[in-house]
Amino acid sequence: MNIEAKLGLDVFKIDKERHITIDVEVCNRVCTDKACLYVCPAHLYEIDDQGNNTVNFEGCLECGTCLISCDHRALEWHYPRGEYGVQYRMG
Amino acid sequence: MEKVDCIIVGGGLAGLSAAYGLASEGLEVMVVERGDYSGAKNVTGGRLYLSPIRDIYPELWESAPFERPVTRELVTLMGDGASTTLELASDCFATAPYQSYTVLRARLDQWLADQVMEKGGMVITKNRVDEILVEGSKVIGIRAGADDIGADVTIIAEGVLGLLSSKVGLREEPLARDHALGYKEILELPSSVIQDRWHLNEGEGAAHLFMGEVTKGMMGGGFLYTNKDSISLGIVVGMSAMRERKEKIESHTLLDAFKELPQIRPLVEGGTLVEYSAHAIPEGGIAKVPKLFGDGYLMVGDAAGLALNALLTVRGMDFAIASGFYAARAVADAKSRGDCSAAGLAQYEQSLRSSFVLKDLETAKDIPHIMENPRLFTHYPQAVSGLLEKLYTIGPHPSQKLSSTVIGGVRKDFMNARTLKELYAMRKI
After folding, report:
1. How many beta-carbon pairs below 8 A join chains A and B?
2. B2-66+103-172+290-354 in CATH: which number?
3. Which of B105, B128, B174 sits opposite A91 (nearest CB)?
């Protein structure tokens, strides 16, 4: 089962307001490693057609691994507002 | 500003344990949890070691929604092409009172939240704490949305990332080298199938850890825990290890590869995947435990880095519950003396120091450093399996004496300067 299908099994309450924002300028200019692309267990980070890093915050498992792994502080990351985001039924 | 005796930031096990203790003492306590219910944002591998905390709230555990007591312990050292499994079936683990249980957090935490409310504690869900309010050097309460709520003591149980407490300087921001990523699948399987596959009597459970090839040489390992009607299958991998590996691996693909291994495939066969989850794990050990108390606040559970990966035993929830318990005692005491300053709350750290929480972390203080050696996850699992493979092999040529094979294998893989040095360093664990 691919990762998108796995995430499809989880319960998400998606907020209109995004809880992860990439500082694209810092990301492009300073970061060579782009750890977020491979550390994220939900595989939410992607480079778009323009060569910019993007994040599909809707499928976020809220582990914070991308935030901890971003040496350049290019992520503005906070938990989703109360009652939004992933809601584990088993955990 | 509305005011209560104690506010608890986060309704996980540490926060709820503190709330239960305080509510039992008749204090006015408010837990603020951002999930739809307690446990909605929490993940464990996982198993809870009950032995260390059985006497903490002894009345509670009888009704706890545990999955299975762990009566069988397995560990597999995975080389490339050969693996060795050690299986321990011990009467003492198979006899009540059981030392540990597999658990699922959404069930366990909700149940504990119910117990808190029964004692008169408030558990406010669906509310994110946005800020810890500080006046001078004193924590005076929290901000959640448009509401400021004051408290004599704020117990910080916000979890591993510590976003709120680091923002106001009560701890450091989390660093990759002190954290691991844990993620897992829950696969439903009929109870009878679980018992057959893991050779268990009805109701009993197994815990199985995997080291080596499973993380492609990165610090970490695989795990499999049997629940009532499901198994939890996952991976823990060091955040720095992922960065340092030359050929980067997308973390989610490690778990898929793990499931496809010939040793694992028959174990998960027929399982229905029902949930995929992930969480960060504090692994910095005692060196990374922040200041545990100050004017008007205490830190508990993962927020305080209270977790311990000792390779064969992985703990955190017992520390969380114990730290919550001692926090409640310290707050109740401070309140009764009318002194919620750092001096008034200092008893908290003292009781953690004389309990298993900081004692066990202190005992294990060298483990994080030892685990940074990648050869623990490459050379050693391979060497053990390689040697056993030789012992079990009958080839076309005349065999060597058993002792020669062992001596030859040990000499080659263990008696060199590098390995001896490493094994010597391991005396500290």
Report:
1. 138
2. 3.50.50.60
3. B105
Q: What is the tens place of the pLDDT at every residue in A2-50?
A: 999 999 999 999 999 999 999 999 999 999 889 999 999 999 999 999 9
Higher per-residue confidence, B360 vs B372: B360
* Residue A37 included in any domain: yes
What is chain B's length? 429
Structure tokens at B12: 């996980």
Q: Give the pLDDT confidence score for residue B375 in this predicted structure.
A: 86
Structure tokens at A16: 């209109």
The DSSP H or E segment spanning B241 is helix B239-244
Q: In chain B, where are the structural domains located?
A: 2-66+103-172+290-354, 177-282, 370-428
Whether A39 and B242 lie within 8 Å, measured CB to CB: yes
Q: By CB neighbour count within 10 A (0-12 exposed, 13-18 middle, 19+ buried), where does B149 fall?
A: buried
Q: How far is A47 from chain B (nearest CA, A)?
A: 14
Select the residue from A65, A77, A84, A87 to test the B interface by mutation, using most B Cβ atoms within 10 A: A65
Which one, of B42, B290, B97, lies nearest residue A61 by Cα? B42
What's the number of domains chain A is made of? 1
The answer for B99, left when phi > 0, alpha when psi is -120 to 50, beta otherwise, is alpha
Query: What is the b/e burial string over B171-206, where b = at least 16 CB atoms within 10 angstroms of the residue's CB?
Result: beebebbbbbbbbbbbbbbebeebbebbebeeebbb
**Residue-range definition of the domain harbouring residue A14:** 3-85
Q: Which pLDDT band, with edges at 50, 70 and 90, does B405 fall under?
A: confident
Lowest mean pLDDT among B86-95, B171-180, B380-389, B406-415: B406-415
**Of the partner residues A10, A35, A80, the one whose CB lies closest to the CB of residue B276:** A10
Question: What CATH class has B177-282?
Answer: alpha beta
